[in-house]
Amino acid sequence: MRLSSNNLLIAFLCCVALHAAQRADVVWTARYVVTMDAQHRVIDNGAVAVLGSHIVAVDTRANIDRRFTAAHRLDRGDAVIIPGLIDTHTHAAMSLFRGIADDMILQDWLEKFIFPAEARNVTPEFVLWGTRLACLEMMLGGTTTFTDMYYFEDRVAQATKEAGMRGVLGETIIGFPVPDAKTPRDSLAWTEDYIQRYRNDPLVMPAVAPHALYTNSEATLRASRALANKYSVPLLIHLSETPRDSDQTMKEHGMRAVPWLDSIGLFNGRTVAAHAVQVDENDMQILKRDNVGVAHCPSSNMKLASGIAPVTRMLALGINVGLGPDGPAGSNNDFDMMEEMNLAADLQKVATGDPRSVPAEQALAMATINGARVIGRERDLGSLEAGKLADMVVVRLDQPHAVPLYNIYSQLVYALKASDVRDVMVNGRMIVGDSHSLTLDTGVILAKAREYRQSVQQSLSH
Ligand SMILES: [Zn+2]
């Protein structure tokens, strides 16, 4: 066939178009990319291309370089890129109470220290500064999304947005007067207004957060569920952290806590249940059937001697289990998701007597894609895939405890530390660069935290 000059021109232009690089805003490259996608692909000499707030491609560096030209590049060489870590349960602003009362039983800790300390100190400013401190620690340790339950939650939202992080944030609803509300009815009304303000925010996902079964009436629990469903937001609750929940419902209703909550419709919508330590087989069957996400908090459960959540069984049943550090004041003392991964894996080995329980890859899944499922965001978070939001973390592999490397999952879960996190991106924006926050003023926040120590200490001596 003889080509006319026109056809030749068209063929030439097609050829150019095929090979012309697509535009990306950012390309990050590293020795490994751990995607946590459905195939759990690990890409040697990998790269991630980002346009706007989204990932546009995850591939080998060679392929990404062939396809894209990027305005900004970060070539990290001896490092691994992982999805941003998703914390499914915490109380960020309690960072200002870090270490205030350790080594005591949960009820004493709550009733003699935490509730009085909160009554005397927790103001909107306190929550703002406490959350800034927490966000600083979280971002430097690779957490990109956190799930929070506290007071003055709009200040938590403010600090989260300043940090450039993502938050699933619920105002605590509790059956006694607290710093920001006299009654649960006030908290519910406040929560509705807060949901309306933040429901379309790109970073803040508002939630409804009744503190626990034993601190709320049935009417409040029902109203909380109704409010969450009215706006299609998640409900966050502490569930069966100790035997207290089921002791109470057995006495009042002749049923364990989980079946009773199920009977009043509490799980009839997206639910994130923190702890679920004291659950039996029937409880777990209900959690699975109702698609309740569990926020497993190994540090907190160990430190408060709450017991060991039957996570191995939950995972076998197909329950979505994520991880959380819980509060930093007595129940843990830090917000280190790398540590929670390690402890989650080790604790199940102790509990089952089987070192094959919760292998490293599964522990990393709990901190990433499973965490996304727990908060109902697996479509756009939790793994590195084209089309998902660009939340990712560079972890360095050049420290003594990172060498030699045989298995990247083992290294991430059993050897690497929060301090190995080097760069963090959330929603396409770099918020940590070379282990420094690019969004929050570290010096000012640390100074303010030390100032708060004085006033908290004084308030407790009265
Ligand atoms: Zn908690």
Structure characterization notes:
It is built from 17 helices and 17 strands. Helix 14 (360-367) packs across helix 16. It has helices at 5-19, 61-67, 106-121, 124-140, 153-163, 184-198, 218-230, 244-253, 257-263, 281-289, 298-303, 311-317, 337-352, 360-367, 369-374, 408-415, 442-461; strands spanning 22-34, 42-51, 54-60, 68-75, 79-83, 85-90, 143-150, 166-173, 204-210, 235-239, 271-275, 293-296, 321-323, 392-396, 421-426, 429-433, 436-437. The mean pLDDT is 94. A hairpin with a 7-residue loop joins strand 1 and strand 2 (42-51). It is of the alpha/beta class. It is globular and about 85 Å long. The termini are far apart. The site of zinc ion has 6 residues, from loops.
Summarize the model shown.
With about 450 residues, the protein is of the alpha/beta class.
Quick one: how many beta strands? 17
Instruction: Supply Rg.
Output: 23 Å
- Main beta sheet strand tally, sense and closure: 9 strands, mixed
Summarize the amount of helix as a percent range.
Answer: 40-55%
Share of residues in strands: 15-25%
Which consecutive residue ranges, at least 5 long each, have pLDDT under 50? none
- Which ligands, by name, code or SMILES, are bound? zinc ion
Structural class: alpha/beta
Tags for this model:
462 residues, alpha/beta, 9-stranded mixed sheet, 4-stranded parallel sheet, 41% helix, globular, binds zinc ion
SSE arrangement:
Elements (H helix, E strand, L loop, with lengths): L4 H15 L2 E13 L7 E10 L2 E7 H7 E8 L3 E5 L1 E6 L15 H16 L2 H17 L2 E8 L2 H11 L2 E8 L10 H15 L5 E7 L7 H13 L4 E5 L4 H10 L3 H7 L7 E5 L5 H9 L3 E4 L1 H6 L7 H7 L3 E3 L13 H16 L7 H8 L1 H6 L17 E5 L11 H8 L5 E6 L2 E5 L2 E2 L4 H20 L1
Parallel strand pairs: 1-4, 1-5, 6-7, 7-8, 8-9, 10-11, 11-12, 12-13
Antiparallel strand pairs: 1-2, 2-3, 5-14, 14-15, 15-16, 16-17
Helix pairs in contact: 3-17, 4-5, 4-17, 6-7, 9-10, 13-14, 14-16
The chain binds zinc ion (ZN).
Zinc ion binds next to loops.
